[in-house]
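Notebook p. 47: complex prediction with zinc ion.
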Amino acid sequence: MVNIIKEQKGNVLSVRLVGSIEETVSFDQIIGQTGGELHVYCKEVPRINSVGVKGWIKYFQTLQQANVRLTFFECSTAIVEQINLISNFVCGGTVESICVPYSCGQCKSEFIAVFKAAEIKSMGQMVPELKCAKCSGKAVFDDIAEEYFGFLSR
Ligand SMILES: [Zn+2]
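Predicted complex, structure tokens below:
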């Protein structure tokens, strides 16, 4: 079940998706049609299944055809996975920022940091070491850079 938090400012509609995207999600119903620009915040989407992916692409393609400017923010790891798998997943939209998984080498805790796509690109598809909030140890990117950041070189 997905909840949506919407905010309209001028011609920009911002929507925050909260929850897993599965069979029951009808984007037409929960977001509806919009003109101008749509900003989609995806940090709180823990998973999306294959039916959810179909519904997602169908909905955002309709907006793409209607010339809505799409921008995706704070894409969760589940969303980044789909962006890498399906070249058309963002339907002509822009990926502004993504969630990057980290793990601490010392206490093993895992966390997410948000980076701008342009920032990761400018660092050569890499992200810096971060300080662990729990133990102040060194936390490093916890995935395979060529795969996770692969979409940036498309
Ligand atoms: Zn730690």
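Notes: The two ends are 32 Å apart (CA to CA). The beta strands are 3-9, 12-18, 37-44, 69-73, 94-95, 97-104, 110-116, 130-131, 138-141.
Next step: compare against the earlier run before touching the bench.
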